[in-house]
Amino acid sequence: MAIHRKDFMLLLKPYYWVNIILTFSYVFCKKTNFICQYIFAPTEKTCELDVKELEILLFLMIVVMIRTRKAGSVTMLAYLSSSFLYTKGANLLLWFYADVRFGLLFTALVIVISLLIPEPTYSGPENVLYFRSLATLEEALKENKQHTVWLVCFYTVWNPMCSNFAPIFSQLSVEYETKYLK
What we know:
The model has no long low-confidence stretch (mean pLDDT 81). The protein is mostly helical. It has helices spanning 5-10, 14-23, 25-31, 33-39, 51-71, 76-98, 100-116, 134-143, 160-175. It is elongated, with a radius of gyration of 22 Å. The chain has two domains: 5-116, no CATH class; 134-175, no CATH class. The longest helix is centred in the middle third of the chain and has 23 residues, at 76-98.
């Protein structure tokens, strides 16, 4: 997994730090005495994680490692984005385990934040031609009568692997731009 300086700059975007806060919300509330005694005091005597909560967190770590490895996350940001989904799910279980009201509140919070702060997309330079219809493909082929090699990559917005590969593909399109390679 490569970590670049520009990736660290992207971590300053609200999507990442808000999701990091959501990721650690339950453990932070449970381990901070003041918050724990205010939220969990009626039901628990100590502010420690019990065995069931530790099992959920251990299961979360295993799932995150397996799923992100299977997804082929090659950058730190792709790894974080895919792990946010699972950590929010585990936190949802933990909040419901503590109290149904907290679980519902956390669910509403996650939905609102997901709608208001979507995952940032690549916005750098690119020399990629997008063929959204047959007419645009035929038009591009008519314009380039010379010997041009076309590199075609199929892209879908809903596929995480495509979303993770799009910035890399865009950067490569700028770096290796020639009139004979499209």
